[in-house]
Design a protein that fits this description.
The chain has 10 helices and 13 strands. The protein has 312 residues and is an alpha/beta fold. The chain has one domain: 3-Layer(aba) Sandwich (UDP-N-acetylmuramoyl-L-alanine:D-glutamate ligase). Helix 8 runs antiparallel to helix 9. The longest helix has 15 residues. It is globular.
Length: 312
Amino acid sequence: MSILVSGSVAFDTIISVVGTFKSQIIPDALDSFNMSLFVPTIRREYGGAAGNIAYNLSLLGKSSEIIAAVGEDAEGYLLRLAELGIRTDSIRVIPQTFSPQGYIIGDEIGRQITAFHPGAMGFSWEISVRNAPYSHAIIAPDSRLGIMNHLRECTERGIFTIFDPGQAMGLFSGDELVKMVVQADITIMNEYEYETFRGLSGQYFTDIAKSYGKIAIVTLGEKGSRICQESGETEIPTIFVHTPVDPTGCGDAFRAGLLCGLSEGWDIEKSCKLGSVLGGIKIEHVGGQNHTFTRDSVDAIGMKEFWEKFFA
């Protein structure tokens, strides 16, 4: 059975700044703020949450299908996805639009400023989930109606579904966010999103999920992740990383590991450990889709870090 990945298929323009943002901001000049940054390197990468998640799933040998809207500039990206064995039946090309575009400015200590142009993504709500045998689904950042419609369709069809609002959280009211956490089987957010959710709804999403017998996961960057469920909380560490290079796409790699594990019938802790391994591999490479691995190489890291082979 295939895994459905709903979300953005985007191009990321990654810009590297000399120095740190903090060193270049003059607090007394904020009223007339006008910053100029020297950027010695710039590159364009394949990205978007759905594209990144599906890419990692393909490296694990898992079948996946993306549901998304892209612009007329996506021909090369669609060919790449097909070559990776990722189904594109549910990707619609919207005429006279650009694909979603992310502009990521990063400083020397890994801090990032991201600007995102949704482009064709605004039409994703028009695409319905196909009546196909999906084992699991993830609803990643997308348009407002795209997220709501695809989450509703998946849960109504009994597909085990992960809700991952990410940077799209500000598109919803607090009540809408609470409703979607209750709908999903698992909700996942990072630390910043965890606090943003509380600001919008007045509640922590972890408490809501637990009260409805669902699972909540908070990703904690270099500190790992925390699984919250009725039976208690479990901390999952990150793996040792020799040279962190670029955090872009690390969260998506983690989510692919989580999805893979769940689709294999593993428990939530083992699945999150696989996510930690993939996130650790990704951070040593630039961009969201320039790293590579095999099941054997993942197993070798799993034994070293967790005394556990995932696929043996």
